Every structure is written in structure tokens, then in C-alpha cells.
Amino acid sequence: MASSSEIRKLFKAFSDNPAFHAQVRDANTPQEKHQIIRNAGHVPVKGEELQAELAKSLQSGAPATPEDQEFVGHVVNLASADGAVSTEG
Q1: Looking at the 3D structure of the chain, how many domains does it have?
Q2: What is the mean pLDDT of residues 68-82?
Q3: SS in 3 state form for the chain?
Q4: pTM of this prediction?
Q5: Would you say residue 89 lies in a domain?
Q6: Chain-centre distance of CA 46, in angstroms?
Q7: What is the pLDDT of residues 11-49, one digit of tens each?
Q8: 84 domain residue, yes or no
Q9: Rounded to whole angstroms, what are the CA distances from 21 to 56, 58, 62?
């Protein structure tokens, strides 16, 4: 199970390195994706872990930390259609 800091480091790496993100995105199997992520020195993250971390960062009632804002920004950038790593031509 990935820790909060490992999840955030992975998304920062995706955001900072579009080639790394593309390599992971283009892998054919989950095992291949995990191996690419491990070879880059990161911990693979399961969907449930990512959802839990994102939900924790977005919870209302608690003030967002700068780290939360950065993490959510990375996730939004990678997920949005107009993000820097969009596959649209």
C-alpha cells in the first residue's frame, strides 16, 4: 500500500515529466505499468489509494495545505482534457 507521500511524489513525477507519464500510460498491462513506475524509483498506486488520497485532500471543513493544493493541481492537470499531457492532437 502506497503512503500519502509516495502517492504525491508519483503524481509530481507524472506532472513534471510528461515522457514518463506517457510511458506509463502507454504500457500494455498493469504489470508493465508497475515495473516502469518501480524502475523510476516510485511506488505503484492503486485506484482506491488514489481516490482516498484525493478525497482526503478535498475534504471540506479542513483548510487545504499548500501540499494538498499542489497534489490536487497535479491530478487535475493530468486528468483534464486541456492538461499539458493530453493525448488529443
Answers
A1: 1
A2: 77
A3: CCCHHHHHHHHHHHHHCHHHHHHHHCCCCHHHHHHHHHHCCCCCCCHHHHHHHHHHHHCCCCCCCHHHHHHHHHHHHHHCCCCCCCCCC
A4: 0.74
A5: no
A6: 10
A7: 899 989 999 999 998 999 999 999 999 999 999 988 888
A8: no
A9: 24, 23, 31
